[in-house]
Fold this sequence. Notes:
It is a single chain. By secondary structure, the protein is of the alpha/beta class. The protein is built from 20 helices and five strands. The protein has a five-stranded parallel β-sheet with strand order 3-2-1-4-5. β4, α5 (104-119) and β5 (123-127) form a beta-alpha-beta unit. The structure holds flavin-adenine dinucleotide. Flavin-adenine dinucleotide binds next to α9, α11, α14 and α16.
Amino acid sequence: xxxxxxxxxxxxxxxxxxxxxxxxxxxxxxxxxxxxxxxxxxxxxxxxxxxxxxxxxxxxxxxxxxxxxxxxxxxxxxxxxxxxxxxxxxxxxxxxxxxxxxxxxxxxxxxxxxxxxxxxxxxxxxxxxxxxxxxxxxxxxxxxxxxxxxxxxxxxxxxxxxxxxxxxxxxxxxxxxxxxxxxxxxxxxxxxxxxxxxxxxxxxxxxxxxxxxxxxxxxxxxxxxxxxxxxxxxxxxxxxxxxxxxxxxxxxxxxxxxxxxxxxxxxxxxxxxxxxxxxxxxxxxxxxxxxxxxxxxxxxxxxxxxxxxxxxxxxxxxxxxxxxxxxxxxxxxxxxxxxxxxxxxxxxxxxxxxxxxxxxxxxxxxxxxxxxxxxxxxxxxxxxxxxxxxxxxxxxxxxxxxxxxxxxxxxxxxxxxxxxxxxxxxxxxxxxxxxxxxxxxxxxxxxxxxxxxxxxxxxxxxxxxxxxxxx
Length: 471
Ligand SMILES: Cc1cc2nc3c(=O)[nH]c(=O)nc-3n(C[C@H](O)[C@H](O)[C@H](O)COP(=O)(O)OP(=O)(O)OC[C@H]3O[C@@H](n4cnc5c(N)ncnc54)[C@H](O)[C@@H]3O)c2cc1C
């Protein structure tokens, strides 16, 4: 009789889960565990963290669904490096099954778990699940990692076969999941016991919700290409948080879209490939967690300004599109991709503040925070990354606003001080002070701030900063 333990981490689903399928293939009986890891939770500053709430909701749903099948999910709260080997030992399993987690800290944790298990002759088996292709699966002709997205995406598509996105769902039958031995039980994993609180989460967790969001998106996927850059409309899928925590499988997304030849569906697949590209980049270039991918830009003469950084964080820069984005992030935990690019460009080029500050702030606030994607996005916007925005192409926040939020609908949604500003003035209210006074009854700088920087001067200073570094 072979017994295994399936350890869920960033794959919070029972269907189409590679490690679970492998466990079912190798074992007669499988125990299931999720551990709320104190080494991660204790570092979270905000005790009303929407991500913890999301995970909690997803685990609750998993447990309910298992109990309908008379199976059980063991939920632990503590240090995963210790809790998992201890549980595996007590359950007398032969192997622990998990899906790859590729972030540097997770790799260290897994190495420690594997080492501890080895002492009891228990194997640690981990599998690819989070992406379609990982590590060295898509390489250049000369065998190295790609550093440019377009040839990578071509090679990715060329390599793809139906086997790469097959459905790995197994039967959740009770006889596969034995009753827990005496003395083995879940810890108290209520949010309160872990020191957290329920939040105003607008993206409920769980696989049923993920499926609902995917189905709803599939009805409008053909329009994705035309609408994906407009933050005021529902043009994108809003699936990033589900992909982050694995309440949706990446293979499910590919299966749903690959046969659709519309420009919308194919553009969406390109975005999924960007996700794979950045995942591969972090694997091959882990130093990009702290340093510029492009070494030439490692010693840029960044500015230090606590007050400007604070104004950016709070959405009080005086540039409405930037402020709307930061307030969307602060109040919902999400920000539209186009606006992420605008605010990141503003911080690094207009304020010349190191991208690492922005990256860390996003890491604290984003519901879909994923180290590889966040680093990729930030280093792209800062022009320090792989296949990044060239340093001399600097976003003008007003032009971006006019182009992508032409009616100012997105701005008015998140910046209430500007709700009475009519027409085009919304993009740069300081340019029409008397109109602003007439429409809002306020002077610029009373309630809504004056711009903290002059874009054209800031642009010149940023160009100089990059040119100096190149010289
Ligand atoms: C500065 C910056 C930071 C970012 N940080 C993160 C992050 O921490 N986590 C994260 O998941 N995404 C990040 N992104 C990428 C992107 O903004 C989000 O994935 C996207 O906004 C999520 O919305 P959606 O699910 O509706 O995306 P859709 O447009 O529907 O795209 C589908 C999926 O493709 C992937 N994707 C989309 N755009 C990108 C992109 N530009 N790069 C890589 N993958 C992409 C995501 O998994 C997304 O869910 C960042 C982008 C920038 C510019």
